[in-house]
């Protein structure tokens, strides 16, 4: 996170005042300590960073957002980098994959079909899943901004390369990987092609 903010917003001391830096530093240190203590086996218990924290919802007097308009900053960042943070990853145990090489493509296709079915339900104006005004119009506007080619929440290597390349660079720079991995190493070779009938 520090690397990402510094790369796109400049050096921290030029963007944030001393009090901001103290708060940011403490938050990052606490998060890193928690990751080290609980390691990977408890990682799935972490709450999503996308959810609005209760201290913001309840307007706690000593907490404020880093950016006044987070959505505007996210849109600017996306326009500048093409990066939209990946929210989910599907992994297959190597032994299962090696014994059933077909499984990677089948799982990929199943998730892609499920995603498309879910998007169709969200676009159905007759059944409101989010009871707010202009839901479908807002979804279409957002999807048009992020997914201009019409491929909403794309799966696979090429569609996600703008996000994966920097991610792998940051992982190596921060010592999370022993070498700079290539994007192709993250995907089963069976996913590097697509057959349409």
Task: Give a quick summary of the entry.
The chain is mainly α and 197 residues long. It has nine helices and no strands.
Strand content: under 5%
- Name the average pLDDT: 78
DSSP helical segment count: 9
How can the largest sheet be summarized?
A: none
Number of separate strands = 0
Portion in helices: 40-55%
Query: How far do the termini sit from each other?
Result: 42 Å
Spatial shape: globular
Rg calculated over all Cα atoms: 20 Å
Order of helices and strands: HHHHHHHHH
Number of domains: 2
Structural class: mainly alpha
Give the low-confidence spans: 39-50
Molecular structure report:
- By secondary structure, the chain is an all-alpha fold.
- The protein has helices at residues 2-9, 12-15, 18-38, 54-57, 70-81, 94-99, 103-123, 135-146, 157-173.
- The chain has 9 helices and no strands.
